[in-house]
Amino acid sequence: MTGPLSGFKIVELAIWVAGPSTTAVLGDWGADVIKLEDPRGGDPMRGMTVQPLDFPDLKMRPPFELDNRNKRSLAINLQHPDGRDVAHRLLQQADVFVTNLRLDALERLGLDYTTLSALNSRLVYATLNGYGHTGPERLRGAFDYAAGWARTGLMATIAEPGQNPPGQRPGMIDHAAGLALAGAISAALLAREKTGQGQEVRLSLFEMGLWMNAIDLTIGLLAGTPPRPERREDRANPLWNCYRCADDKWIYLVMIQSDRHWRDFCSALEHPEWLNDPKFSDSVARSKSRHELTAMIEAAIATRKRADWAAVFDKFELFWAPVQENSEVLEDPQALALDSFARLEHQTFKNFRVVRSPVRFAAKEVGPRTPAPELGQHTEEVVQELGLDWSEIAQLKESGALG
């Protein structure tokens, strides 16, 4: 096993996306991750299945596979006293505990920070919830769609005026939170190397959404009025907008410093006369004439296919990107050059790939190593590492403490 976190043992008690994605990243970085799951069904994300076109009689679990690679599954009944005892023994040897269960549920299970830090003072205790760890909604359940997307202003701000609130795709804020929490855990482990003491690390989906919306919110804090949704036709900078090409494919121009790019942009669109028009002389003038200029750019872009514009825009070193569909992203040459879709050995599927987490370490090979485990696949293996013999394991299974 390689990676900067090789040798660290992570215990996860988490479901759905945000918590499991945290430990998937830590596993990518080399940590040994043990996933605690209820023997009566495990992580509910296991039920999110699809039927592959090549194997219509099989069911795959892409979301579960994505966020549970690199892990070992321990089927354990934490509501059983003997199950809790096994969990405590495991956590006494662990470096990190990651959970996204509600705070009151953790207290009932004896897995709260106060209890576990008394058992293991070096433990880094990382907890993620919906709305934060203080305040009147600390125990309120949430998914990222509610706490991170709708509640924080992101949903309403992205929508154009008069349009329905837009949806987000699954796990967008969850995955951002997971990466952030993985970084915070790494910082806490570094602090432990200096002090010898573990600590509690906290993150919430609500605060993650606030951070993702931080520029607009900070404008509101300092200027008194936060930005409001705007129509595409009303953008102050027409060179920072999306346009439809002749083949009905879209491009997004991102020339934030429009004065810097204006001359090359006019040359690229073969409209040098725009340079002499006083209505477009600088960014202030173009903003005042935004509606006229946006319409003119629309007409120009609509004359060619996106692939044709790609060559032109790159020739003039303009800042832009194709608005790609997912099917195009899967074949994107830059993604393939980065090896962004890691191939893993799977017992059922030959061409088994998952998306890599984005952080790379030049000194170490990191990334997905093994596919997600079956429920309880490593139960005996993990408890044997704790020193339990086969007779003890059999007794725990018979009592229902282990699955």
Report on this structure.
- The protein is an alpha/beta fold and 403 residues long.
- The protein folds into 2 domains: 9-213 and 338-399, Crotonobetainyl-coa:carnitine coa-transferase, domain 1 (Rossmann fold, 3-Layer(aba) Sandwich); 232-325, formyl-coa transferase, domain 3 (2-Layer Sandwich), CATH 3.30.1540.10.
- 40% of the residues lie in helices and 13% in strands.
- The protein is built from 18 helices and 11 strands.
- Strand 2, helix 2 and strand 3 form a beta-alpha-beta unit.
- Helix 6 (144-150) runs parallel beside helix 9.
What topology does this entry show?
Elements: E1 9-13, H1 18-28, E2 32-37, H2 62-67, E3 71-75, H3 81-92, E4 96-99, H4 103-108, H5 113-119, E5 124-129, H6 144-150, H7 154-158, H8 172-195, E6 200-204, H9 205-212, H10 214-223, E7 240-244, E8 250-254, H11 258-268, H12 283-288, H13 290-301, H14 306-315, E9 320-322, H15 326-329, H16 333-337, E10 341-344, E11 352-355, H17 379-385, H18 390-399
Helix pairs in contact: 1-8, 6-9
- The number of E-state strands comes to 11
Count up the helices: 18
Order of helices and strands: EHEHEHEHHEHHHEHHEEHHHHEHHEEHH
CATH class of the largest domain: Alpha Beta
Number of domains: 2
CATH architectural group of the largest domain: 3-Layer(aba) Sandwich
Largest sheet: 6 strands, parallel
Coarse morphology: elongated
Structure classification:
alpha/beta
Radius of gyration: 26 Å
- The overall pLDDT, averaged over residues, is 95
Placed side by side, the strands forming the largest sheet appear as 3-2-1-4-5-6
CATH fold category name of the largest domain: Rossmann fold
Q: Ranges with pLDDT <50 over ≥5 residues? A: none
Considering the protein shown, what is the CATH homologous superfamily of the largest domain? Answer: Crotonobetainyl-coa:carnitine coa-transferase, domain 1
User: Alpha-carbon distance between the termini?
Assistant: 28 Å
Content of β-strand:
5-15%
Helical proportion, percent range:
25-40%
